Amino acid sequence: MRFATREEVELLRRHYIPGSRIVLDEMDDPYTKIPAGTQAVVTGVDDAGNILCHWDTGSSLSVAFGADRAHLVRSEEEIRVSLNWLGKRQEKATGGSCPRCGGPLASFKGHVISRRAMITVCDECGMDEAFEDAGLLPKMELERWHCVGIWEP
Ligand SMILES: [Zn+2]
Question: How far is the CA of 135 from the centre of ligand 1 (A)?
Fold first, then answer.
């Protein structure tokens, strides 16, 4: 095992921004119970190149540089898992912004649950999704949602 160079740490910090979501590919730790496919929120990258994060399972084990592997959420299914995770947190929060368009949620009159995941979106996005499903609008891919990239400020 080797140590991360300063350049590699810089690169990792630019890629794994605090608030982004990652998916575990492999953890090289026999005592770990975190299964591949588990998602986490990145909280930072330390000077040794380890990705610090909070796993959805409750663990805070970091992704060890040179030993473990993870990637940012990218597929529709991975993003859907993250949206469901965000939706659960949304229940506790008040106000905030629409995860789909980034507009204010506070102004919404009723709760509009997205047709894509268990998460509240603004009235307008709820309408757009209905139009999409009716074939009147092109489908907006999940990776274009406002919350994707920085899930947690
Ligand atoms: Zn919206």
Answer: 19
Kindly give the distance from the C-alpha atom of residue 93 to the centroid of ligand 1, in angstroms, as a whole number: 16
**pLDDT band of 105, cuts 50, 70, 90:** confident
**Cα(67)–Cα(62) distance, integer angstroms:** 11
Instruction: Kindly give the distance from the C-alpha atom of residue 41 to the centroid of ligand 1, in angstroms, as a whole number.
Output: 23
Contact 41, 19 (CB under 8 A): yes
> What is the 97 CA–ligand 1 centroid distance (Å)?
8
pTM, full prediction: 0.88
| Whether the predicted pLDDT of 108 surpasses 80 | no
Q: Which residues of the chain form CATH 2.30.30.40?
A: 6-72
Residues 6+ apart with CB under 8 A from 46: 52, 62
For domain 6-72, give the CATH superfamily: SH3 Domains (2.30.30.40)
Q: How far apart are the CA of 51 and the centre of ligand 1, in A?
A: 31
